[in-house]
Design goal:
Blueprint (H helix, E strand, L loop, with lengths): L2 E5 L7 E5 L13 H8 L6 H8 L17 E2 L4 H7 L2 E2 L2 E6 L6 H14 L4 E5 L6 H6 L7 E5 L13 H22 L4 E5 L5 H4 L4 H11 L5 E6 L10 E12 L2 E4 L11 E13 L9 E8 L5
Parallel strand pairs: 5-9, 5-10, 6-7, 6-8, 8-9
Antiparallel strand pairs: 1-2, 3-4, 10-11, 10-12, 12-13
Length: about 300
């Protein structure tokens, strides 16, 4: 290995020996700012080393901790549990569908199952549509249920008040109450009933709000449900279920949806519902679309 001898004035002529391959070649450079900055860097740093320095604070994906699978609790409908595995704690679940698709049936079944487990639940009712008698008939223990009615009495007697502004006000109340409930904690289930809000109003909830709700419920035993006409939470929901009516039984005779116009008084005895699993992020695997059909009897049908 060859070597070279250099001397400096500071060393008073004493020779210093360096390996030739360790010595950077000195060339006269113009005194520009970019060359001054380069001169301050160690001359042995190569582009690969620069990449290591820049990525020193980045954790490789292989070292990231795997989040545990959330605990699943029964939804109160056996067929639904077969489809989804239940409702995940610490996650946002969306249940959407048009009118008469079974949204209220699924909501009451989930509340009944939660209160039977001894949990306290809250329903934020944007449409003021919950019927306590129907809830009790479905098995909901009302002593363990907090019912928040989003209603603005100041506009009930104003004929010129726009329905759109009324819906916006109810949505604002729902968002404020939800923040308070998530901050307080202690609920086994919090259900947001937006089914009676127009879809164009419900879609005004920004994704940042849904993300905040999801982060607030993480690492808690709370099941967060959103009951809607259409899916609006996007990727913030861990479970998305779409409902649609499959058929109904009137006077014990099956009537396909939509309903035929009756020629005389008839009694609705059973509602048949089709549930489709659209998205599931529980097991972090792509889920193929799957659906099931179940029936719900009316309270007067026994």
């Amino acid at each position: 290995m060859s070597s070279a001898v250099f001397s400096t004035s500071a060393a008073q002529g004493r020779p210093f020996v360096f390996e030739v391959e360790d010595v950077a070649e000195v060339r006269p450079q113009p005194a520009r700012a970019e060359h001054v900055e380069k001169a301050r860097l160690p001359q042995r740093i190569v582009p690969e080393d620069l990449k290591v320095v820049r990525l020193a604070g980045v954790t490789p994906a292989s070292r990231l901790a795997i989040l545990p699978t959330p605990e699943m609790v029964p939804s109160g409908i056996a067929a639904m549990d077969i489809l989804t595995g239940g409702l995940p704690r610490g996650c946002l679940t969306e249940i959407c569908g048009p009118a008469s698709s079974g949204r209220t049936t699924v909501l009451l079944a989930a509340l009944a199952a939660a209160t039977r487990r001894g949990e306290f639940c809250a329903v934020v009712d944007a449409g003021d549509a919950l019927d306590p008698q129907s809830a009790a008939a479905a098995g909901v223990e009302l002593d363990r249920l907090l019912w928040v009615r989003c209603n603005d009495n100041s506009h009930q007697h104003e004929p010129n008040h726009a329905e759109r502004h009324y819906a916006e006000h109810r949505l604002e109340q729902l968002l404020r109450v939800t923040d308070l409930l998530l901050e307080s904690g202690g609920f086994g289930m919090i259900a947001l009933d937006l089914g009676d809000l127009p879809p164009q109003i419900a879609r005004r909830i920004p994704l940042t709000t849904w993300f905040r709700f999801r982060r607030a419920v993480e690492h808690t035993p709370t099941v967060l449900l959103a009951i809607e006409r259409q899916s609006i939470a996007g990727s913030c929901s861990s479970l998305l279920i779409k409902l649609r009516p499959a058929g109904n039984r009137v006077d014990d005779q099956r009537v396909d949806f939509p309903f035929a116009i009756p020629t005389h008084a008839q009694l609705l005895t059973k509602l048949e519902i089709t549930a489709e699993l659209v998205r599931s992020r529980i097991d972090r695997k792509p889920v193929r679309s799957a659906e099931i059909t179940f029936a719900s009897k009316t309270a007067w049908a026994g």
